[in-house]
Specification:
Blueprint (H helix, E strand, L loop, with lengths): L6 E5 L20 E5 L15 H6 L1 H7 L3 E4 L27 H13 L3 E6 L9 H8 L12 E2 L22 E3 L5 E3 L14 H17 L3 E4 L38 H13 L6 E4 L6 H6 L8 E2 L3 H4 L4 H16 L7 E2 L8 H4 L3 H15 L6 E4 L19 H5 L45 H5 L5 H11 L9 E3 L5 E6 L2 E6 L5 E2 L4 E5 L7 E2 L3 E6 L6
Helix pairs in contact: 5-6
The chain binds alpha-D-glucopyranose.
The site of alpha-D-glucopyranose has 9 residues, from loops.
Length: 543
């Protein structure tokens, strides 16, 4: 284990902030964000679906957890084909979730409790029930109404085949035929037609949406499918059909996603955000192949942050995680932006289950919390990871994700990470709803020990660990980060006065001398056992 003289090699430090429009420091540069998947967080009105009133009632829980900012998933009017990511009106509130007045109350309360509020925007597509799309269907081919979306004639005899071989992320072709014979593009569900970003009206409307919510006081946005928006104007066939990965990691990169034109959109959005006081920010959902391409989205005049999904995809292995961390830190530092860390979301299998599930998964997830929160830069937590929730294996007839139907029942989709949170009590709905109702996805019957209430007073629970880590994180040194030498199956790094270590190996790891601030498991004779992590205050040796 490291003696201080072994402090080595890879030093990656982030250059100072780009000039900020206001005097206060840019809060987002090292904030901990908490993703609220609204349908599944807390139900205020007793219909079994989470809503804004439910979130408002639980704000004290989030404050006590110690997060800095919230990210609220879409709450706009929606037919809910993709549970809100099919937006029928981007400047209003879905009645299932509340209304604008309720949103304003939630925002005011979050601010009063010292938390920032960021919200989702969905610029790549709309709902097929948006007024614009209904008008496009009613209008003729070639009309201005159709020009807000991507309508084309088909190929083959009578145009009966789709215009090209592009696939939908949710399975099946990315084209849907309309009664007059034309086809429209939908990279997600057919009820989510892609907008035509080459039409200036679309770009203007999106900025109106940003301003609408900025005027109400939101602190920033999470941009859905941020590497989307523009498609290859030739609309040519992909060289090979889709294989495994459907998010810009194959031949579709640069054709369906990640086109250079998208960067001008974010330059313009940055100007909108910077024209408001208080460091309003945007984070992009950017699925791209390499860290350099990710960093292109967070150049100083573009987005503030971009999710780094490489850590979420990494195996539970020291070498892979080390490489991902080093490469991403270096790529982001080159553009002066912090790296944004995330292990779980409403789109991914919960990491406790990815890391093995059961006791093993829980142990690793505890260590992972100290990894995530021990790295420099902003972190996104996903609701329920602080309660040690696993992925749920739901019965077929409970599945609601469009992926299940669209894939012909070959992919189960993302419902398993979206099961409503357990708050209290010993049986469903575990305080999720005020009355005993069926929740929109069924909760397991063995979650009684995982409720927030059950973990609240136990400092050793997952909730207790997250709370302590969020508090202790404030003592880690800014953007300072340096790998320390150690065995190959351990990650050891320094943040200012604190050394963080994660031991993946079988042999217990010796920790540096100093005050142990936090461990994910009990130490064994002062050593760090397998699949566990620790933070130790240990001053660096004088040079
Ligand atoms: C993003 C969202 C996902 C949604 C998709 C289409 O990836 O995170 O939940 O299904 O976009 O909007």
């Amino acid at each position: 284990m490291p003696s201080s003289s072994a402090e080595s090699a890879t030093t990656v430090s982030t250059p100072g902030s780009p000039p900020a429009p206001a005097e206060q420091p840019a809060w987002w540069r090292d904030a901990v964000f908490y993703e609220i998947y609204l349908r599944s967080f807390a139900d205020g009105n007793g219909d079994g679906v989470g809503d804004l009133a439910g979130v408002r009632a639980r704000l004290p829980y989030l404050r006590d957890l110690g997060v800095d900012a919230l990210w609220l998933s879409p709450f706009y009017p929606s037919p809910m084909v993709d549970h809100g990511y099919d937006v029928a009106d981007p400047r209003d509130v879905e009645p299932v979730f509340g209304d604008l007045a309720e949103f304003d109350r939630l925002l005011a309360d979050a601010h009063r409790l010292g938390m920032r509020m960021t919200i989702d925007v969905v610029p790549n597509h709309s709902s097929d029930q948006r007024r614009w799309f209904r008008a496009a269907l009613a209008a003729a081919p070639g009309s201005p109404e159709r020009a807000r979306y991507v309508f084309r004639d088909g190929s083959g005899p009578g145009g009966a085949e789709p215009p090209n071989n592009w696939p939908s992320v949710f399975g099946g072709p990315a084209w849907q035929r309309v009664p007059d014979g034309q086809w429209y593009l939908h990279l997600f569900a057919p009820e989510q037609p892609d907008l035509n970003w080459r039409n200036p009206e679309v770009a203007e409307d999106a900025e109106d949406t940003l301003r609408f919510w900025l005027d109400r006081g939101v602190d920033g946005f999470r941009i859905d499918v941020a590497m989307g928006l523009f498609k290859d104007p030739e609309l040519g066939d992909l060289p090979t059909p889709y294989t495994a990965d459907r998010r810009g990691h194959g031949p579709e990169d640069g054709v369906l996603w990640n086109r250079p034109e998208v960067h001008d959109v974010y330059r313009s959005w940055r100007q909108v955000l910077d024209s408001y006081p208080g460091h309003r920010m945007a984070v992009g959902e950017v699925w791209v192949r390499d860290p350099g391409e990710l960093a292109a989205y967070i150049r100083p005049d573009e987005l503030h942050l971009a999710f780094n999904f490489r850590l979420l995809r990494a195996e539970w292995a020291a070498a892979e995680m080390r490489a991902v961390i080093s490469q991403t830190l270096a790529a982001c530092a080159a553009v002066g932006a912090p790296t944004t860390w995330v292990l779980s979301s409403h789109d991914a299998v919960r990491h406790l289950s990815r890391y093995g599930g059961g006791d093993l998964g829980r142990r690793r997830a505890r260590a992972a919390a100290l990894l995530l929160l021990g790295l420099p830069g902003p972190v996104y937590l996903y609701q329920g990871e602080e309660l040690a929730l696993p992925e749920v294996d739901l019965p077929d007839d409970a599945l609601q994700d469009p992926v299940w139907e669209r894939s012909g029942h070959t992919e189960r989709g993302r419902d398993g990470c979206r099961v409503p949170l357990p708050w209290s009590g010993g049986e469903p709905p575990y305080g999720f709803s005020p009355t005993s109702v069926r929740t929109w996805l069924p909760q397991p019957t063995d979650w009684g020990t995982l409720t927030a209430q059950a973990q609240d007073r136990d400092g050793d629970s997952m909730l207790g660990l997250y709370r302590r880590a969020l508090r202790a994180r404030r003592e880690l040194g800014g953007s300072d980060f340096r790998w320390l030498e150690g065995p190959p199956d351990a990650l050891i790094w320094r943040r200012g006065d604190v050394v963080c270590a994660l031991n993946f190996g079988a042999a217990a790891l010796r920790l540096p001398p100093g005050e142990v601030l936090l461990t994910s498991e009990g130490l064994e004779e002062g050593r760090l056992p397998t699949d566990s992590a620790a933070w130790v205050r240990s001053a660096p040796a004088a040079p």
